[in-house]
Amino acid sequence: MLHTTSNAPSENPRTLERAIGHQIRLLRRERDLSVADLGAAAGISPGMISKMENGQISPSLASINAVASALNVPITALFSAFEESRDCSYVKRGQGVVIERRGTKVGHIYELLGAGLRGELVVEPYLITLEADAEPYTGFRHSGIEFIYMLTGEVSYRHADQDYHLRPGDALMFDPQALHGPAKLLKTPMTYLSAVVYPQP
Predict the structure, then answer these.
(1) Got the DSSP string for 69-138?
(2) Between the CA of residue 35 and those of 17, 28, 49, 75, 160, what are the distances in Å?
(3) I want to staple 82 with a disulfide (CB 3.0 to 4.6 A). Which of 4, 19, 101, 113 is the partner?
(4) SS3 for 181?
(5) Torsion 8-81-86-197 (CA) sign
């Protein structure tokens, strides 16, 4: 198994078993069969059927085929819950959507680099460019968590009552419910990546 440095929990190792079990239970109930009825039709003990439905075992292909036959469905029907799509957003260089964020000022360009994934969290990744005619603005405030990674130029970035001198390679992560934004544009034009994360409404 490949590991990353992320502390995000990995997927349950029995995801496939649970998905198959869910389908078996769903199809059995649709046919108004008891666990014992299905077990008898498939030639498998009720206890084994129960374990399969609860994802507690990794059933053999022969057992899965026997259950599918007893339910009168193709074996692939038992895998349908597992074959869900995984979202992905791909944006080619220079093709991000240029948008106007609330509070956007002249010379501040926000290019949205990805959007539209399903899940419990919304992630908005921006490539932000501050041009030569840009003006400082420290009035941004919103919910979630924000992460900034400096690419080019230099800026004195304010969060609450603290200023941070950001140069290429510097990073800043903060609670964006405090007032924040570029306080002094030290070397323009400048670019930095900004990722805003917040719960799905």
Answers:
(1) HHHTS-GGGGGTTT----------TT-SEEE--TT--TTEEEEE------SSEEEEEEEEEE-TT-----
(2) 17, 8, 7, 18, 61
(3) 19
(4) strand
(5) negative
- Name the one residue in this structure whose structure tokens are 């590991």: 3
End-to-end, the C-alpha distance of the chain in Å comes to 34
Determine the Cα angle at 174 with ends 199 and 135, to 5°. Answer: 105
Q: Within 13 Å, how many C-alpha atoms sit on residue 190's CB side?
A: 27
pLDDT (tens digit, 0 to 9) for every residue of the chain, 201 residues total? 444 455 665 555 557 788 888 889 989 999 999 999 999 999 999 999 999 998 888 888 899 999 999 999 988 888 776 665 566 777 888 888 787 655 556 788 889 898 766 667 888 899 999 999 899 999 999 999 999 999 999 999 999 999 999 999 999 999 999 999 999 999 999 999 999 999 876
CA distance 21 to 4: 30
Residue partners of 191: CB distance under 8 A and separation at least 6: 127, 128, 129, 130, 151, 152, 153
The C-alpha atoms of residue 173 and residue 164 are separated, in whole angstroms, by: 11
Amino acid at 152: T
What 3-state DSSP class applies to 155? strand
